[in-house]
């Protein structure tokens, strides 16, 4: 098991370094737009199939989260020079690789309390181990929808664990800091608020790579933000479906995709309703809003 993870790690680091070096030295010299994007297609394809060569749930989840999703979407922004592109002519190769492969925070970093970090890490690893044991041992005896929920939990935990460990190392070495993995989503008072707090790495990635470009394309229409939201949720659903496939190696059921499509439509409807209710000034009591929001997410999760 240990040697397998070590081999996966060597392949992962080598692939990332070689591929992003190509992007830095070759693709960056091409004009932004179609030609640069075409030059990046082999790299995007490689990063998409890379998790399939991993031999454990842990390494598969890490590779998908930080490479198939995060880095691929940053390369799309790099291709078309969109907001928050990972490339800048003044960046060194090392800085380009760091920014392209990790969710780096733009603001100045502050040190983390070491005792709190250790307690949180131990707790997360314990929960992760229990969920992995549950999936690997009782997978064929548990309802498929529950397995889907467990996979989502694993994805969230993997991102949180790796982000916390990487954040500590990155701060010690460079003074840079990673974006937080989430922002207390259980305190959300609406669906729009919930998805703005949940899995911030994915939220920020979709905002800059999907939502803003779609809204810009339809900028002459009032419904442009709604189109951006729905398209972002559709893309998120497809990426989650791909994640479950690469993790389980089983035929897609498309339940993940429909879950995010439903939520995308509901968020869009919620935005319209907020506008209609006295310019968005009317609000439910916070406790009621939180209960309804979390309840709706949980209810649709099990549909």
Description:
It is a single chain. This protein is an all-alpha fold and 303 residues long. Helix 5 runs antiparallel to helix 6. 31% of the residues are buried. The mean pLDDT is 84.
List keywords for this structure.
303 residues, mainly alpha, 11 helices, 72% helix
Indicate the percent of residues in helices: over 70%
Percent strand equals under 5%
Overall pLDDT level: 84
The total beta strand count reads 0
Largest sheet: none
Short note summarizing the structure:
It is built from 11 helices and no strands. The protein is mostly helical and 303 residues long.
Topology:
Elements: H1 2-25, H2 34-49, H3 57-80, H4 93-101, H5 114-138, H6 144-174, H7 191-197, H8 200-217, H9 224-248, H10 255-276, H11 286-301
């Amino acid at each position: 098991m240990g040697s397998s993870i070590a081999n996966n790690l060597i392949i992962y680091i080598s692939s990332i370094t070689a591929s992003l070096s190509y992007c830095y030295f070759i693709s960056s010299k091409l004009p932004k737009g179609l030609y640069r994007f075409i030059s990046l297609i082999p790299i995007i394809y490689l990063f998409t199939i890379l998790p399939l060569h991993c031999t454990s749930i842990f390494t598969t989840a890490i590779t998908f989260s930080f490479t198939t999703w995060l880095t691929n979407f940053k390369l799309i922004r790099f291709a078309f020079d969109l907001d928050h592109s990972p490339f800048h002519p003044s960046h060194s190769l090392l800085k380009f690789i760091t920014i392209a492969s990790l969710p780096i925070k733009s603001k100045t970093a502050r040190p983390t309390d070491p005792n709190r970090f250790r307690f949180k890490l131990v707790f997360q690893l314990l929960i992760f181990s229990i969920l992995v044991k549950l999936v690997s041992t009782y997978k064929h005896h548990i309802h498929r929808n529950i397995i889907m929920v467990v996979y989502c939990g694993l994805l969230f935990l993997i991102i949180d664990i790796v982000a916390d460990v990487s954040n500590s190392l990155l701060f010690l070495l460079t003074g840079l800091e990673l974006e937080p993995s989430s922002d207390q989503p259980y305190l959300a008072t609406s669906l729009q608020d919930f998805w703005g707090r949940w899995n911030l790495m994915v939220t920020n990635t979709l905002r800059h790579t999907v939502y803003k470009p779609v809204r810009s394309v339809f900028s002459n229409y009032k419904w442009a933000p709604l189109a951006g939201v729905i398209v972002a949720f559709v893309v998120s659903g497809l990426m989650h479906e791909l994640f479950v496939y690469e993790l389980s190696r089983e035929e897609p059921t498309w339940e993940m995709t429909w879950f995010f499509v439903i939520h995308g439509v509901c968020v869009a409807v919620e935005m319209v309703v907020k506008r209609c209710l006295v310019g968005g000034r009317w609000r439910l009591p916070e406790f009621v809003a939180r209960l309804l929001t979390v309840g709706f997410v949980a209810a649709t999760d099990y549909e």
